[in-house]
Amino acid sequence: MKKLFLLSMILCFVFAGYSQRATPSKQMRDYAVKRVHPSQHSTVVTQLPVLPSYKADFVPEEEVIGMTRYDLQTNTSPQNRFHVYDDGTMGAVWTMGFDDPNFADRGTGYNYFDGNAWGEQPQERIETIRTGWPSYAPYGENGELVVSHDFGAGSLLYLMRDAKGTGDWSEMTLEGPGEPISWNRTTTSGINHDIIHTLAIT
Fold this sequence. Notes:
The protein is mainly beta. It is built from two helices and nine strands, in the order ααβββββββββ. It has helices spanning 2-20, 26-29, and strands at 82-84, 90-96, 107-113, 132-139, 143-150, 155-161, 170-175, 182-189, 195-201. The strands form three sheets. It has a four-stranded antiparallel sheet, with no helix packed on it. The mean pLDDT is 86.
């Protein structure tokens, strides 16, 4: 009895397995898969690289807006040095100096684009003292801000004016929290750019 039961179970499994087998149609059996040969890529580059954000036929315009002999511009991390305003005007700054080798004249080179043309290339810094590494940002409803450091004094120098591109700069010094500060990175925010954010090291 046990042998008969075991044989019946084996036959059930065999028939169940056989019934699960799929038989492909004649059309599927005769289907041929085409062999695709790998394409041979040339190692010769015939096209010059282009900037990905521009169309290939767009050539960016360049214009020299200022000069300097002092070439240590960033000390690893660049500041905000350029701003395009909503009305199409632009402001730009850089660390400028011409007096090799100690650069006693070092300070901020500044130029402004009024919507039609850049101003004359500056020959003197905008600060009254030796500074370096300026940050540039809009300030107030229509003004601008430049923040650089006076490394010798261990403080930051803020230059502000109410009308961008014109007028006298007003200067303000920011001392460190009981120790020298330098290497600022400054920007502004708020509806009228009246909130100043400054990072500096001690």
